[in-house]
Amino acid sequence: MKVLLKQNVAKLGKAGEIVNVSDGYAKNFLIPKKMGVEATKQVLAQWEVQKKSQEIRQAKAEEEAAALAKELSKKTFTLSEKAGEGGRLFGAVTTQDVADALKAQFDLDIDKKKIVIPEDIKNLGEYTVQVKLMANAVAEIRMSVVADA
Fold first, then answer.
1. Confidence of residue 135 (pLDDT cuts 50, 70, 90)
2. Mean per-residue pLDDT, 107-134
């Protein structure tokens, strides 16, 4: 029996794949547990439509992320931190600090896990921070760390 998998099944296949399994395995395990459905013409046609619409949404999201990355790469933001003599910071700049500054200055809600600081920032100065919006959309933003007044 041909079955369209709704979710990943160990040692069988991934979600969206059509696999050939025994009738008993399909009727007694996969279908009752909602792990798959019988691959009829209607189900396959509906699955193709869903797959195409998902691809279109994914392409649109990647396009928007690339445009946002291009826009962000042109911007510079300022981060105020407490510093001692010689421009040495009390602590280091974290990704959460950068996310909060982007939210405050540009009203961008970016997850701190998507921000990459290539080196430890422990001094005042100019730095470059990467924001990974999607796999192919990475923005490099200039950041100026200044002493808190």
1. confident
2. 92
| Other C-beta atoms lying within 10 Å of the C-beta of residue 33 | 11
* Mean pLDDT (whole number) for 42-65: 93
15 and 55, same domain (yes or no): yes
Distance CA 31, CA 70 (A): 46
Is 82 in the same domain as 30?
Answer: no
- One domain, residues 72 and 51: no
The model carries a pTM of 0.68
Check whether residue 98 and residue 133 sit in a common domain.
Answer: yes
